[in-house]
Structures are given as structure tokens and as C-alpha cells.
Prior knowledge:
By secondary structure, the protein is of the alpha+beta class. The chain folds into 2 domains: about 1-230, PmbA/TldD fold, CATH 3.30.2290.10; about 235-445, no CATH class. It contains 9 helices and 17 strands. Strands 3-2-1-4-5-6 form a 6-stranded antiparallel beta sheet. It has a 5-stranded mixed beta barrel with strand order 7-12-13-14-17. It has a 5-stranded mixed beta sheet with strand order 10-9-8-11-16, covered by helices on one side. A hairpin with a 4-residue loop joins strand 4 and strand 5 (about 175-195). About 40% of the residues are buried. The model has no long low-confidence stretch (mean pLDDT about 95).
Amino acid sequence: xxxxxxINTQIDHVKGRVENALxxxxxxxxxxxxxxxxxxxxxxxxxxxxxxxxxxxxxxGALGITVYKDGRKGSASTADLSEEALNNAxxxxxxxxxxxxxxxxxxxxxxxxxxxxPVELELYHPKALTTEEAIDIAKQCxxxxxxxxxxxxxxxxxxxxxxxxxxxxxxxxxxxxxYPSTRHSLSxxxxxxxxxxxxxxxxxxxxxxxAQLDAPELVGQQAASEVISRLHAEKISTQKVPVMFRADxxxxxxxxxxxxxxxxxxxxxxxxxxxxxxQPIFPEHLTISERPHLTKALASSSxxxxxxxxxxxxxxxxxxxxxxxxxxxxxxxxxxxxxxxxGGIHNWLVTANxxxxxxMLKQLGTGLLVTELMGQGVNVVTGDYSRGAAGFWVENGKxxxxxxxxxxxxxxQDMFKGIVSIGKDxxxxxSIRTGSLLIEEMQIAGN
Length: 447
């Protein structure tokens, strides 16, 4: 394939530049060094009400180098990838290292943990798109939304984005690895009005492979359906009720869990899950598995940002916490081993014990279905949770009417243990694959 040959040639060229930077760092007296370089190019177009609002071409890159000398660390970066700029960045990092404090926990990841020969994960699926083709797809998407219902009176537009690029990482342990990847997405934001009420909502599709994106018409129709369903939202009274988070936002609950078991918060003692390893955090029915090597997946990677090999692991087994999420630095601070999570997680799969979306509503019975969250009222130190929300009031397992201007609150500790069910309506569009999430009871502040 011509595109694959071209990108691999670029990667090989960049690997040579990385080798030169590492050699220069050594010649300047660094004990060890690591270099990460990324490049990205692509196209993004935005249409609104049938007109082209924006066309943006991207072709950029960045290099970061970190050197270690006598327990001291120096870092520098540059967006200019010329030979002179790279040399200047290396010299700057070495110079900075002379003035930083000694830290015995800093340094490269242990050599035996590195991915010297990464596995192929099929993350590169380039799509040759002309500007005209991209504009046409975005217009198809927005037109479908506008034609769906007479109450769709306006639009914040449709956006098509298609990017390809690569990452290369090398260090003085002899590791020099890289891989290409692509990411394509299409989104649409619709505005509906009926009488004096106006609402706004969106829909999107994203994939490594352009051919696996949802059809433009489908995305537009979904955006229209979402916003129409929100018209004439009502307020509800303050009460405690079961709460169900729809699949597309259920991942936010696990996002707070990620923060609580991340090494940086743990060694700083700023997490409500200190010393929780081996303890029950969730109900026994819940298991979270990490699978970094799923082909084409959005969060797949053979190695983390430190070059550490990623491996399959169980995060939660029958409700029990099996591992923290550690970088080399945080692992050393805690007296543990890195888990290969520098840069984030890699494809979390949350087991489902419930049915499809309709079955989950029936299990909810009477309570709140949350489809949107607002604000940042989460304290990872104490577990306090309080966020603005919107969604639907559900009665007897059926959606009754939309609701807005409410706040949901609780303690993350109680929310985790109060998860009654995870649905089979899994959202595949992110790093956490989960279905709708039903919590036994939460406090709702309304009228």
C-alpha cells in the first residue's frame, strides 16, 4: 500500500533524527535521555446552515527531550523539527538539568519493562479526501438534521475531521520504536425551538477507519432526535431516587475512578482510594479489564509514553481493586512497579450484567436518566460528587418527560458500591467501553 510505505519511510527518517538527538545528549554529558516526537497532518471542515464556515489544514509536529544527569532532570521541547532546532533543544535540556534538584525517583523506565519490538495493532487507515468531498459529507450530515423536523430551526454546524500521523519514541536504553495512526470523526450540533423554548444537542461518530464511521445522514438524524427530545424540559423536586447514566456519559464515573487510582494522586496522598489495593471498591458483579492490543481501537497502544510495554490486565475483578495506574516515577515513589500507564489508560472493558437500554430503563423503574453533565464539582481527595445535570424523568420503566436545571450529588465511594447494573448498550467511541450505568440511589436537588 503506497500510503503505508510513505508513512513508514517518514518514521524511519524520524528515528534517525531521534538517534542523533540521543547521541548528542550523551556527548554533552547526560547519563540517560529519552526523546518523543510526533507528527500529524490532516483536514478539518465545518459547515453551518449550508455554508462553509471553516477549512483547516494541519501539518505540524513536536519533539520533547528529557535528560538525566546525576539524579537531576532537564526537559525541553520544540515544534521546529529542523536539525538546528533539535540540537538546540538537546543543549537546553542538558543545561536545565544542571540546576534542578536531585530526585532519586526520576529516570528512564527499567529496561526490562520496555517494548523493544511492539506488536502491530492496525491503527493506520488513511483516507484520501479532497476539500470538496469533506465539505459535501459535512453538508449531508447537517442537511439531514435540518430536514428531520420542522422544529430544527438552526444549527451550530457539522464538522468532518480526518487526521493521520505517527509517534516515535527512543531512549538511551537502546529502545527506538514508532507507529502510525489515523483518527476520523464527524459531528453535528442541532438547535430546536418550539414556542419560547430552545434547546441544543449533538451527535458524533469517530473511528480509526473512515469506512467504519456512521453515515452522515444517520449522524444528522441522531443530532436532531437528541435535541427534539429535550424540548420543554421540566424541573423536578428535591429527592433521593435511582439514577441511570446513559452509556455515552457513564464513562465519566469511571473517569473519576481513574483519577483516584492514578499514581500521582496516590503518592501525594490526594485520593480517597489510598491503600485500597485488594479492597472491594465496586459490587461483585463488576469487572474492568484493560486490553491495550485490540486492533483498530481508539485507545490501543503497544507501549506507553515512557516506552513501557502495555499488557492485558484486570483493573477490577469481582469488585476488587487489582492494580493502581502507575508511571515509572509514581511507582518508585510508592515502592512499586510501573504499570505502563504513562499517558493514560488503554481500552477499558466494563462487564455488563444488565440488558439493553430499554431493559435498563425498566430496571430503573422510577427515577432519573442522566444524558448530560455540567460543571466540575468532583473532589478526588474526599470523593464528594456534585454536578449539574439534565436528562429525563422515568416512570414505570418509560421515559416520561425531559428534565433540566438539576444537581445530582453523592460520595463516589457510595456511588461505586451502589452500582446496581451495567447495560449491554456499550458505547465504543472512547477509551472506556461501558454501557448505561444504574446507581441504586442519589440525591437530586431540584425545585
